[in-house]
Design the sequence.
């Protein structure tokens, strides 16, 4: 590519403050609007961070293929110091041998496709439990909220696969909250942390806000971290006791016991700190992302009843009505997969991925980018690029049918070295839960109005601004299956 001597486009800045006036939630939407004005590559000064924002398939490919290593670092966001034991956890660590080791354990030992297949029975078990409780609630009162139920589901899938907690975990109640004691505890921790961190918070960006810290953000973060760590330490201790008592057979091993096995062989590499850090990262990265995507999918389906009917019909044809959707069915439920892809296109749970950073001077689009610059990749804008997608704002799962979208660029899980290692687990869980929700229940809007699709961006995940609410009726043809759950 030819060098580009022209300065990088940049919105008007305020002396000293840079572009702080542009920092608003949801930040991906602000950046998408700036892209319309300044093009797919522009720079921002966000307090102490110099950033470039990339919003086109070509530039994203350039950053995450040719320049993958160059951009494999993470910026040092102040909140990550407290949340991730001084930047030592997988999602926040710099690109170095320590990160490579964490990544190998996560991708190969804990979350590989093979491991996810081994965990399928456990994931299905949690989906069945959710459907059983939903059936009970819907029979009593058809008006259903899904957010807490989906959080309970994603947390219990992680608790079960990470720490085999079935025997000790409390039962979620059938009431509308449908949250176990553990889910309520972890939700509180996440709700306390989420609004305080991420790129759209002045505390992250401006040292002066941190020095005075009038809202006491640092102390709030530290208090939440103490609570989070106590929750996770209890899981680790309980699993250690079980392993000492003999543990489970290979295929059914929890992630913690897999790591204890590694620790036995190489105690200096697989330290307690490393195990605790990995567990923390998986819980933080895996719960809200699965919850948000499934909630978006259900909202889109309620606004597009034809797609919902088509998914129903395929599930009835492939699975029938005498049993629930299973992992083995997922590859044949092609339309369900199209729905999940189209949801991830329109509402990627982490619309700006996680921020990257270059550790050397480099070039993007021919422009020189100095070492230490933060890279923000706007997957949300890329997924809605009219040059790539026909009717980009429309929900059209059919566009993915029969490989029609092959070659069209989307990166809901990121790309390159720092790509999400939880993709296989997320897709398996979302396929099973969405498949079961469609198979077992009739869904309808609570009134004639379409489901409001307003977004609410916190931390790095974008949720529905108004929690999903719908009328839910068990399908008569599934009564027998639901009774047996
Ligand atoms: C719909 C569900 C999910 C979505 C959309 C998603 C998306 C992402 C994205 C965009 C990133 C950042 C990639 C980058 O920096 O370029 C990421 C990182 C990560 N995700 Fe996920 N994720 C999901 C579920 C999960 C699950 C279930 C787990 C594990 C249980 C997980 C674990 C991680 C970890 C550990 C990282 C950090 C990787 C690193 O920095 O090396 N994610 N995810």
Sequence:
């Amino acid at each position: 590519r030819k060098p580009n001597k022209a300065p990088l486009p940049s919105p008007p800045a305020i002396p000293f403050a840079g572009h702080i006036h542009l920092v608003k939630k949801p930040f991906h939407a602000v950046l998408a609007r700036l892209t319309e004005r300044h093009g797919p590559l522009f720079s921002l000064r966000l307090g102490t961070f110099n950033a470039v924002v990339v919003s086109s398939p070509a530039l994203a490919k350039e950053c995450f293929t040719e320049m993958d290593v160059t951009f494999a670092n993470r910026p040092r966001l102040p909140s990550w110091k407290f949340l991730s034991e001084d930047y030592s956890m997988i999602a926040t660590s710099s690109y170095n041998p320590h990160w490579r080791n964490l990544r190998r354990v996560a991708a190969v030992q804990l979350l590989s496709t093979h491991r996810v297949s081994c965990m399928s029975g456990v994931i299905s078990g949690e989906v069945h439990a959710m459907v059983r409780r939903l059936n009970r609630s819907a029979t009593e009162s058809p008006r259903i909220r899904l957010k807490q139920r989906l959080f309970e589901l994603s947390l219990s899938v992680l608790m079960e696969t990470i720490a085999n907690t079935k025997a000790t975990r409390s039962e979620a109640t059938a009431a509308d909250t449908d949250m176990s004691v553990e889910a309520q505890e972890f939700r509180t921790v996440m709700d306390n942390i989420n609004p305080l961190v991420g790129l759209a918070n002045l505390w992250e960006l401006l040292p002066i806000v941190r020095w005075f810290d009038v809202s006491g953000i640092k102390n709030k973060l530290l208090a939440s971290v103490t609570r989070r760590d106590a929750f996770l330490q209890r899981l680790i201790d309980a699993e250690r006791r079980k392993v000492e008592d003999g543990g489970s057979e290979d295929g059914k091993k929890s992630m913690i016991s897999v790591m204890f096995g590694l620790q036995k062989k190489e105690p200096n590499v697989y330290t307690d700190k490393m195990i605790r850090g990995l567990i923390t990262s998986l819980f933080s990265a895996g719960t809200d992302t699965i919850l948000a995507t499934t909630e978006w999918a259900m909202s889109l389906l309620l606004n597009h009843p034809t797609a919902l009917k088509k998914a129903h019909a395929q599930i009835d044809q492939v699975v029938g009505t005498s049993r629930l959707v299973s992992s083995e069915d997922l590859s044949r439920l092609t339309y369900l997969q199209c729905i999940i892809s189209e949801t991830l296109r329109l509402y990627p749970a982490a619309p700006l991925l996680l921020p990257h950073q270059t550790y050397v001077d480099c070039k993007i689009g021919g422009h020189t980018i100095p070492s230490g610059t933060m890279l923000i990749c706007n997957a949300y804008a890329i997924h809605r690029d009219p040059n790539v997608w026909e009717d980009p704002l429309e929900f059209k799962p059919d566009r993915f049918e029969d490989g029609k979208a092959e070659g069209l660029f989307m990166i809901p899980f990121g790309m390159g070295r720092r790509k999400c290692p939880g993709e296989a687990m997320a897709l398996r869980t979302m396929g099973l839960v969405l498949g079961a929700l469609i198979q077992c229940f009739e869904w309808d809007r609570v009134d004639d109005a379409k489901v409001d699709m307003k977004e609410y961006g916190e931390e790095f995940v974008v949720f529905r601004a108004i929690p999903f609410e719908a009328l839910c009726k068990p399908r008569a043809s599934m009564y027998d299956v639901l009774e047996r759950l």
